[in-house]
Design brief:
The structure is a single chain. By secondary structure, the chain is an alpha/beta fold. It folds into 2 domains: about 130 residues, Response regulator (Rossmann fold), CATH 3.40.50; about 90 residues, OB fold (Dihydrolipoamide Acetyltransferase, E2P) (Beta Barrel), CATH 2.40.50.1020. It is built from 7 helices and 16 strands. The strands form 4 sheets. Strands 2-1-3-4-5 form a 5-stranded parallel beta sheet, sandwiched between helices. The protein has a 5-stranded antiparallel beta sheet with strand order 11-10-9-13-12. A 3-stranded antiparallel beta sheet has the order 6-7-8, with no helix packed on it. It starts with 6 loop residues before the first strand and ends with a helix. About 30% of the residues are buried. Keywords: Phosphoprotein.
């Protein structure tokens, strides 16, 4: 994980501080994903774009504090958070700890402390990726999947997935326009995908049941792809089709 590939979202309602942060982060080689003053906007941004790191002011103006915002975000996706705070009291610190932040930066901060703190967090993120290098980071929300690709999280709507095919320790995710090769097992995908839309029909295939074109005795077809139906999966598939 190189610095230039790390996307950082700034959530800060003081625009002078936010602009200063943006300039310094850019000069250090990081990508600034955006500057947002409100927690509600940050939640929407993360769900849509999934940056890799958050710089979050604890005392945001508006309905949500930085801590409230972090709690809401972590319900959907686990993103490392560094808090910015002018408060060093124990009560604020203890409340913030509940969201498991990676670090705190106390205002007013200087470039050196910012640089060192973020560098340490990025290194920890890198070590975490290396320790789990055989399993690709995948996040699935209500209607979309985020897949880590070239250091970024790419969005794909679940309704666009036709089927998923296993290839040893990889999964090939097929859409009408493109295929994605994921470094995870089919079992991991089966556990993550919503069972209302996806069903395993063979030891090597999961299908989007809404994309089913043809159902034969021992096979089915989706987009002209012939997919075998495993004997142990056939009854469940037939039951699901009857309930559609």
């Amino acid at each position: 994980m190189e610095n230039e590939k790390v996307s950082i979202l700034i959530v800060e309602d003081d625009m002078i501080i936010a602009a200063n942060l943006s300039i310094q982060l850019t000069s250090l080689g990081y990508e600034v994903a955006g500057i947002l003053p409100r927690g509600e906007e940050a939640i929407m941004h993360v769900r849509e774009h999934s940056p890799q790191l958050l710089l979050m002011d604890i005392n945001l103006k508006g309905a949500l504090s930085g801590i409230d915002t972090a709690k809401a975000i972590k319900k959907y996706i686990d993103i490392p958070i560094i808090y910015l705070t002018a408060n060093s009291d124990d009560a604020t610190f203890d409340k913030a700890k509940e969201t498991h932040p990676k670090a705190f930066i106390t205002k007013p901060f200087n470039k050196l402390s910012l640089q060192r703190t973020i560098a340490l967090v990025v290194e920890e993120m890198k070590e975490g990726n290396n320790s789990n290098q055989n399993t690709q980071h995948i996040e699935i929300l209500e209607d979309r999947i985020f897949v880590r690709h070239n250091g970024r999280m790419e969005k794909l709507l679940l309704e666009d997935i036709l089927y998923i095919e296993a290839d040893r320790n990889y999964c090939i995710l097929i859409t009408p326009k493109i295929k994605h090769i994921l470094t995870c097992t089919l079992k991991v995908m089966e556990e993550k995908l919503p069972k209302s839309s996806f069903i395993r029909v063979h030891r090597s295939f999961i299908i989007n049941i809404s994309k089913l074109d043809v159902l034969g005795d021992g096979h089915l077809e989706i987009g002209r792809k012939v997919i075998p139906i495993g004997k142990s999966h056939k009854e469940l598939l037939l039951n699901r089709i009857q309930t559609i």
